[in-house]
Write a structure and sequence with these properties.
The complex is a heterotrimer.
Chain A: H1 2-29, H2 45-55, H3 61-74, H4 87-122, H5 127-141, H6 144-158, H7 179-212, H8 215-222, H9 227-255, H10 258-264, H11 269-278, H12 282-310
Chain B: H1 4-8, E1 24-36, E2 48-60, E3 64-68, H2 75-82, E4 90-95, E5 98-99, H3 107-113, E6 114-117, H4 131-141, H5 146-159, H6 164-167, H7 177-189, E7 195-199, H8 207-224, E8 227-231, H9 235-241, E9 244-249, E10 252-258, H10 259-264, H11 269-276, H12 317-321, E11 327-328, E12 336-337
Parallel strand pairs in B: 3-8, 3-9, 6-7, 7-8
Antiparallel strand pairs in B: 1-2, 1-4, 4-5, 9-10, 10-12, 11-12
Helix pairs in contact in B: 4-5, 4-7, 5-7, 7-8
Chain C: H1 21-29, H2 33-50, H3 52-55, H4 88-124, H5 126-140, H6 144-155, H7 159-186, H8 189-196, H9 201-238, H10 249-255, H11 264-292
Classes of the chains: A mainly alpha, B alpha/beta, C mainly alpha.
């Protein structure tokens, strides 16, 4: 088992390298001047050269890449051109915010999704199934940013129950787990949970239906096991895949939060990404993408290992 | 000279003229195939599965050579090696006197002359192609025109007992297992081969259907002058179909010889044990003791010396040291056994005494 | 010794033909009311997109600022006007063109490229497979939204750039599915039998592998269209992708956000269209998948 984990980690290393390479190339694909946000338009040529040298933009790409990579491994992702603060700090703060939101959203999505999925799988082809399936198709098909807007319109604009945007008074720096702050979480979390809910519901429904149709279930019932006991067996069999899907969804939410955060002005990685793109803040952009992608890779690895640990059918050697 | 009894009991095929053998059609020597194991940190280096580890045999024109053995002994791998569907690690195949794969007999030409019928009748047919399309595919590869290939397909369907007007336009999932195997046979014959390798071709069929297909095979063999290699784990079926039988154990040939001689007077303890596992219909002759104990050893780490010595009742120290080569057993037709007990020169206590020269 | 099939007389009775695979699929599909309804909606949308110039009551680019942000039901403007006074109904109709285009095209391009990569990797195997699939894995290691946005952000806004980034996002998953399906088919007995008849690799791929492989790959690609539509609109919503004044549903959602408090209904309309299209494609794909699941 440990050998397997070690193998998977070793296997992931070239992927991580490839990811950082793609990160770097993506950002440097961008046409346009990397320093356009700091330099006044009438800056002299020598000033430009100085700034370029200071940021290291005048070196050949390969050198820039390896320098950046080396520093990144030490924890230094450079300095944001716009705010002049270390990228790591900006990203860390944003990641914390998004992680909070994404974790809650994934939990909601998982709970509701498994609920709907189990109900649908147990009552296959009845109206209950159709209803639950309809809800999950809805979850997968709705443009979540639009849903966010709708929820804001209904709950904030019309009913005034919940705040439309932001992370509470004092911004994200002064977060407390009290109602004043949590009410800011509710709408974005619910909006975010819709897609994972849909996907998990679908997956669980298919899993449950397939497990229930297997012969060993008939065997369990035949020997007199209570329905609850059978249910526990179903859960045990469905758990590895369901948890794996949940993990992946968490990863997607982390990386793809930008749309919802734009709607709700939530100060997370998505908004950070947005700013970095439109301000052409290269170090920040590079750092943010790298961190998010790495999160996803590590998450995938964790999910893989979890599945192997839980599912005895997967080969360990 | 074959006795009257032996001629009476001869099953199928053209009996060779006494004291003269038909020409060898397929000569296989030194066939080796090791499959590397996946494992360890880099996916290799964990050892090899010695699926086929030095196999020699000859198939004579017009005969049926049966191949038997337990699961994992290497019979299917041998078949695929002969068909060149897998590349052998070592060994030579000579077809009709010409080296296969050499300049005089490139693979494509060889493929037209040796064809195979697989065990899984459903998986052997492309679910998206109609029956006649599947059969006609082979000939078109070798330059036959589409219309002629289709005509040949329909004629063959008729010959194997499936009315073309009902079956030619159907899809595999609409046919039963027995019907599909007939289609597979027709498909193999479409290329007008000289040798047909049947790899457990009837094992998956119901007994009644199996009998029909076996009889069909015998008819086709006579009508088209074919040579068969018949692989099966069913000893009685092999006895019914074959002129000569080859017994394989753990990637090597244990014994090979004429069917009746082998079944009645086997010279390798494994063959004896295998045949001993056949149950008799006579209630007075019940089997009380299992002839063969234990499971076959691991093909990754075969026992040293004779592979069978760990399960052999007559094993001696010699058997774990020296690999027995094939010893010719006296008789008209070629009969070899790879056992020290048959070899006068081996030094085994049960070996026949050296006759005075 | 060798037989002559010409000797065998085959009765001159016409051959019965079974319905082919796709006609069976269609028959099953047409019996599914939900799937057929979804198909009808999509066909309708496509028709609206194609015939927008004839169907739209007004010019989608011309607006009168005096008449901005009128609610639906205003006289002359059945669905109201947007923030620049342009007729919403016309904008939505014309928007169908771009939105459908941006949603469907990347998937089809990715299908082409991804299937080629995956089938090659799956059939050839060995180190070719390893190199191709590991490269795909690197891109697959990014969450799709992130990759799309990063690429768009890097390349800049615009339709072509948006298409490129979305295509790149969808190539890896399609290649993966293609590779896995091809690998499983490659080991089937009928492919071995085809090899045993001496056919070349290209012929085998063409005649035996493709027919069995394209179906599942195609269905998988279809399931991506809904995602692509949402993603494409999302890009425009963020300001990447389609640029104003082009009518596109995602972009319209963005520009109408300012009216969220004053004219909420107006603001929600483009999203409704995205939702309807997306859900129709999803239901269509579900129906197709069930219809193709033939267990004879």
């Amino acid at each position: 088992m440990l050998v397997y984990i070690a193998k998977r980690i070793v296997y992931t290393l070239p992927i991580m390298f490839g990811v950082s390479l793609v990160c770097f190339m993506l950002v440097h694909l961008a046409p346009g001047d990397p320093l356009v946000s700091v330099l006044p338009p009438d800056a002299s040529e020598s000033l430009k050269q100085q700034m370029m040298a200071m940021y290291g933009f005048d070196r050949p790409y390969a050198e820039q890449f390896f320098k950046w990579l080396m520093r990144a491994l030490e924890g230094d992702l450079g300095t944001s051109i716009r705010t002049n603060r270390p990228v790591v700090l900006e990203v860390a703060k944003a990641v914390a915010n998004t992680l909070m939101l994404a974790a809650i959203a994934t939990t909601i999505g998982f709970v509701l999704g498994t609920l709907f999925g189990f109900v649908a799988g147990y009552h296959r082809d009845t109206w209950i199934d159709k209803l639950a399936s309809a809800i999950s198709v809805f979850g997968v098909s709705v443009p979540h940013y639009w849903l966010g807007m709708l929820l804001v319109i209904v709950f904030a604009a019309n009913l005034g129950w919940l705040p439309p945007t932001g992370a509470g008074p004092g911004g994200s720096d002064a977060w407390e787990w009290d109602w004043v702050h949590i009410r800011h979480l509710i709408l974005p979390a619910i909006t975010m949970s819709v897609i994972p809910m849909g996907i998990i519901a679908r997956t669980v429904r298919a899993l449950v239906a397939e497990i229930l149709s297997q012969e060993f279930i008939a065997g369990l019932r035949a020997k007199g096991l209570s329905e609850f006991g059978v249910f526990r067996h179903v859960v045990k069999n469905a758990a590895p895949t369901a948890l794996a899907v949940m993990g992946i969804q968490l990863g997607y939410l982390l990386g793809g939060s930008i749309l919802i955060e734009t709607v709700f002005a939530w100060p997370g990685t998505g908004l950070l990404l947005n700013d970095a793109i439109f301000q052409r803040d290269l170090p920040l952009l590079q750092g943010t993408i790298l961190v998010l992608a790495m999160f996803f890779v590590v998450l995938n690895l964790a999910v893989d290992v979890l599945q192997t640990a839980l599912d005895p059918r997967v080969q360990r050697s | 000279m074959l006795s009257a009894e032996e001629i009476d009991n001869w099953n199928g095929g053209t009996p060779p003229a006494p004291a003269k053998l038909p020409p060898a059609l397929l000569e296989v020597s030194g066939l080796v195939k090791h499959f590397p194991l996946k494992g360890g940190l880099f996916g290799r280096g964990q050892g090899v599965v010695r699926a086929v580890d030095g196999v020699d045999f000859t198939v004579y024109t017009g005969e049926t050579l049966g191949i038997v053995g337990e699961s994992g002994c290497g019979k299917s791998t041998t078949a695929r090696l002969v068909m060149q569907l897998i590349r052998p690690d070592d060994g030579r195949i000579v077809f009709d006197g010409v080296d296969v794969g050499g300049p005089k007999l490139p693979l494509k030409g060889y493929r037209a002359q040796v064809q195979m019928v697989f065990q899984d009748s459903y998986a052997s047919l492309n679910p998206r192609m109609t029956i006649e399309e599947s059969i006609a595919f082979g000939p078109t590869v070798h330059g036959v025109s589409q219309s002629e290939a289709v005509a040949r397909a329909r004629a063959l369907l008729d010959r194997v007992g499936l009315a073309p007007q009902r079956f030619a336009g159907r899809y595999p999932h609409e046919l039963s297992g027995g019907q599909r195997q007939r289609v597979n046979i027709a498909r193999a014959l479409a290329l007008k081969p000289r040798v047909l390798i049947l790899d457990e071709a009837v094992s998956a069929l119901d007994k009644s259907v199996e009998a029909q297909v076996l009889n069909l095979l015998l008819d086709l063999k006579d009508e088209y002058g074919l040579t068969y290699v018949f692989i099966s784990h069913d000893l009685e079926v092999v006895r019914y179909m074959s002129d000569r039988v080859m017994v394989m154990y753990l990637g090597k040939v244990a014994e090979i010889g004429p069917t009746e001689q082998l079944y009645r007077a086997s010279r390798h303890p494994y063959t004896t044990a295998l045949l001993g596992s056949l149950l008799s219909m006579d209630p007075d002759r019940r089997t009380t003791e299992a002839p063969l104990a234990g499971d076959p050893p691991n093909p990754i780490n075969p026992p040293p010396g004779c592979r069978f010595h760990t399960r052999c009742r007559s094993a001696e120290a010699l058997c774990s040291e020296k690999v027995p080569g094939p010893t010719r057993i006296d008789g008209e037709a070629p009969h070899y056994a790879a056992c020290h007990m048959a070899d006068r020169t081996s030094g085994h206590s049960r070996a026949p005494a050296r006759s005075p020269v | 010794m060798l037989f002559a099939p010409a000797d065998v007389k085959v009765p001159a009775v016409p051959i019965e033909r079974s319905p082919g695979y796709w006609s069976t699929v269609w028959r099953r599909f047409s019996r599914d009311p939900v799937a057929m309804a979804a198909l009808a909606v999509i066909v309708l949308l496509i028709l609206v997109a194609i015939f927008a110039p004839y169907l739209a009551p007004a010019d989608p680019y011309r607006g009168m600022t005096l008449r901005r942000l009128r609610p639906p039901g205003t006289e002359g403007y059945p669905l109201g006007t947007d923030e620049l006074g342009r007729d919403m109904l016309s904008r939505l109709m014309y928007g169908a063109r771009l939105s459908l285009f941006m949603g469907v095209t990347p998937v089809f391009l990715a299908l082409f490229i991804g299937a080629a990569i995956g089938i090659t990797a799956g059939y050839v195997g060995g180190w070719v497979n390893t190199i191709l699939m590991r490269t795909m894995d690197v891109f697959f290691a990014f969450p799709s939204v992130l990759l799309a946005i990063a690429l768009s952000g890097a390349l800049g806004a615009g339709i072509v750039n948006g298409l490129i980034s979305l295509t790149v996002v969808f190539i890896p998953p399609i290649a993966r599915v293609a590779e896995s399906v091809t690998t499983s088919i490659r080991t089937r007995d009928y492919v071995e039998a085809a090899r045993a008849s001496g056919a070349s690799a290209l012929l085998i791929i063409r005649k035996h592998v493709l027919g069995n492989v394209l179906g599942p790959i195609f269905v998988y690609a279809m399931s991506l269209i809904a995602v692509s539509m949402i993603l494409a609109s999302g890009l425009s919503f963020l300001g990447l992708g389609v640029k104003p004044p082009e009518p596109e549903w995602g972009l319209m959602l963005n520009t109408l956000r300012t009216a969220m408090y004053t004219q909420p209904l107006l603001c929600a309309l483009p999203g409704v269209m995205i939702f309807i299209t997306s859900i129709s494609f999803n239901l269509l794909t579900d129906g197709l998948r069930s219809a193709m699941d033939i267990k004879a």
